[in-house]
Amino acid sequence: MRVWTYRELTTQAESDIGRFMKQAAMTSGDQAAVYKCWAYGAYIMWTHLTGERREDDEDDMRLKRLMGLVFLAEKEEEESYETC
């Protein structure tokens, strides 16, 4: 069984989120929404796996920034992805 470090998990999440958001930008409508949901899913998985072991709040902000969520309030953030 593979053991992942915090840094490896964060790097993989950042890569996946970036890839999904690029794909969302290259499509439109429902397909773009699917890619955005996948990006959000990668973020949620990262938060679940890293939990209280997060080394840096900057990692969280960087991942949110990739998804365009960094300027939204918590309530708005939840509403933005409630269709996922």
Relative strand content: under 5%
Number of strands: 0
Low-confidence stretches: none
Estimate the global geometry from the Cα principal axes: elongated
Sheet/helix structural class: mainly alpha
Helical element count?
4
Textual characterization of the structure:
This protein is elongated. The protein is built from four helices and no strands. It is mostly helical. The chain has one domain.
Question: How do the helices and strands line up, and which of them pair or pack?
Answer:
Layout: H1 6-25, H2 29-50, H3 57-66, H4 74-80
Helix pairs in contact: 1-2, 1-3
List keywords for this structure.
84 residues, single chain
Q: Summed up, what is this model?
A:
The chain is mostly helical and about 80 residues long. The chain has helices at about 5-25, 30-50, 55-65, 75-80.
